[in-house]
Design a protein that fits this description.
The protein is mainly beta. It contains one helix and seven strands; from the N terminus they run E-E-E-E-H-E-E-E.
Length: about 160
């Protein structure tokens, strides 16, 4: 049976990314993202805002992009997967659980303020930054599927 582990976050960056390099040379960036939801209290009728904080980790080229362009307070879109972990607190010796999002995509939202964009560019072209992955090989043009000579008129 197939399974899915996918997270999509759209929120505001809580702090500037911390970029570091592992001994292997691999870039790693960590950031926190705040997401908020609003609801009305049934009893009082007042609006209650619930903010959740998410720890996000970027690797390789995506980490370098995040380190260069993501800033505190900036709205961003992140796709990734959940990763659970356990560590022992050094001061208390108590085991604690962690939940991290390992990012595979990043989109910077909002304008390009502070990014040195040419005037008139509002940042509306938002193409996602993706982690480096091998490109899928295309089928050779000579390979025919057998449907090339079919009529384009579809009866429905």
């Amino acid at each position: 049976m197939a399974s899915v582990n996918k997270v999509i976050l759209l929120g505001n960056c809580g702090r500037d990314p911390e970029v570091r390099y592992l001994p292997s040379g691999q870039a790693v960036a960590n950031v926190s993202i705040a997401t908020s939801s609003k609801r009305k209290d049934k009893n009082s009728g007042e609006t209650i805002e619930d903010t959740q904080w998410h720890r996000v980790t970027f690797y390789d080229r995506l980490a370098e992009i995040a380190g260069e362009y993501v800033k505190k307070g900036r709205p961003i879109y992140v796709e990734g997967r959940l990763k659970y972990g356990v560590y022992t607190d050094k001061t208390t010796g108590v085991e604690k659980q962690t939940t991290d999002i390992i990012a595979t995509e990043l989109q910077l939202l909002g304008g390009r303020e502070g990014m040195g964009a040419p005037s008139g560019d509002d940042g509306s072209s938002r193409s996602p930054a993706r982690a480096a992955a091998p490109a899928a090989s295309k089928a050779p043009a000579a390979a025919k599927s057998g449907f090339d000579d079919m009529d384009d008129d579809i009866p429905f």
